[in-house]
Amino acid sequence: MLGKYGDISFRAEAVDWPLKTYAEYMNDNQDESPLYLFDRSFVEKTGIRVGRDYWAPGCFGEDLFSVLGEQRPDSRWLIVGPEKSGSTFHKEPNATSAWNAVLRGSKYWIMFPASPSQPPPPGVFVSEDQSEVTTPLSIAEWLLGFHEQARAMPGCAEGICKEGEVLHVPSGWWHLVINLNVAVAITQNFVPQAHLAKVLDFLKNKPDQVSGFHSEVKNAYELFVEKMRELYPEVLNEALGELERIHEGKKRKWDQLVNGDDEYGTNARGFSFGFDEDVP
Questions:
Q1: What span, in angstroms and rounded, lies between the C-alpha atoms of 36 and 128?
Q2: How confident is the model at residue 219 (pLDDT cuts 50, 70, 90)?
Q3: pTM score
């Protein structure tokens, strides 16, 4: 890579460095949380041809965000980092799924499935609307303080991905990744049909958290629905029906809670709250 792309600048968190400068940093750094090269424009910068030089693994099926063409959100990244670099706990943007292909080195992953009944991983604090996530300052800090507790949680999945291996990150899964040595990878977000309803729900009901779209896209949900209706109307209708069933289920549960309906359909006394006037 250095011989071919050494003079090209890539984004490493808050800085843009030529690849050769970043390589020097990797060799010399002693940081607890090393800068992580994570560039969304590597295809344009390097002239790599998607479909010839690399391509999405066929096992993940069609990416439905492809209906957006040039209006799709950011979706692919070149990732380079030294030992101990990585990403703290997060979910994929816009409720998408992702694949991560390791080209060099090895990565440790720890993941937790999407579940409304299970709390976030230990040490991860999420705001009520899930727009803000607070984690320890460094991956090392989290590993020292919470790793053992996290491994005992239901559904925890962990493992090491080595050169030539590809990892699937399903929609909504919490995950943390750390490079065990100098590592190079390509990752890409996608929308499989199985999780289309989740993406539609996110775009529609969490517009303030939608990310990666160009500024001229004012309503990502409406744009996506319009394009899907043109190209995949049956798939869209099925997903919209699933979305309606999900929200109807949530509404029934809320009504039961408010009205005091038990699981057998009988009406108990509804919840009320008031102050006793005799209490000063």
A1: 29
A2: very high
A3: 0.86
